[in-house]
Amino acid sequence: MGLVIFFVFALYLLLSLGVVALVKRYARNNNKNEKRWGWGAVLVMYLLVFWDLIPVYAVHAYQCNANAGFNVYKNLDEWKQENPGLAETLTPIKNAKWQREGNITRVPLNQRFVWQTTKERVWHIVYEKDEKIIDTETNEVIAQYIDYYTTQTHLALAGNDLSDLKFWLKITSCEKSGHMDSRENFFAFEEIIEKLGSNK
Q1: Are residues 79 and 9 in the same domain?
Q2: Higher-confidence residue: 187 or 12?
């Protein structure tokens, strides 16, 4: 696969150099600014493939820095105080069926709480993943984790969208791209889920 990618890039580079040479020759033969026309051709050939490179990374970085992260809106002790004796009656739902409706997926954790995931497009192939622990009785959000990623698919699984072939646009999360200092928030989120499901 690596050799195929290298071959495609080499072929496109040769094609681009040929186009630039032809444009410069045209400019020279027609008394036009050869340098300006040459750089114009370079820009066009670059934008044909890489037009979304900078915008995608810029949008992802902005969203990660502005909106991503983990928040607990009510810890388990507070919830237990508001619902005395209820936690002890809850039992984890094993092998729970995922409930999908549009871009929303809900997984019941026990008789009171669900783990809800919503995925929405932010721009182009940049998406927001919003995960919440929700009290189904009150619809109150107990905890929330927001992350951003791109929908660029593995090259071998690429579909009809040309962006699937652009492996350089693949961003799996804010944390892995360096916009969060550590994965502590993620682990805290997992711990909340575990506690809700096991009554710890």
Answers
A1: no
A2: 12
Do 47 and 89 share a domain, yes or no?
no
Q: 117-146 burial string, b = 16+ CB within 10 Å, else e?
A: beeeebeebbbbbbbbbbbeeeeeebbbbb
Collapsing DSSP to helix, strand or coil, 133 comes out as strand
Please state, as a whole number, how many other Cβ atoms lie within 10 Å of the Cβ of residue 45. 19
Sheet strand arrangement including 140-150: 69-72, 140-150, 126-135, 113-123, 104-108, 99-101
Based on the fold, state whether residues 78 and 44 are members of the same structural domain: no
DSSP reduced 3-state for 107: strand
The rounded mean pLDDT for the chain is 85
Q: Which tens digits make up the pLDDT trace of 28-76?
A: 999 999 999 999 999 999 999 999 999 999 999 999 999 998 888 998 8
Cβ atoms of 195 and 177 closer than 8 Å: no
Exposure b/e, 92-112, CB count within 10 A at least 16 = b: eeeeeeeeeeeeebbebbbeb
Whether 180 and 64 have beta carbons less than 8 Å apart is answered as: yes
For residue 8, the enclosing domain spans 1-51
What per-residue confidence (pLDDT) applies to 5? 61
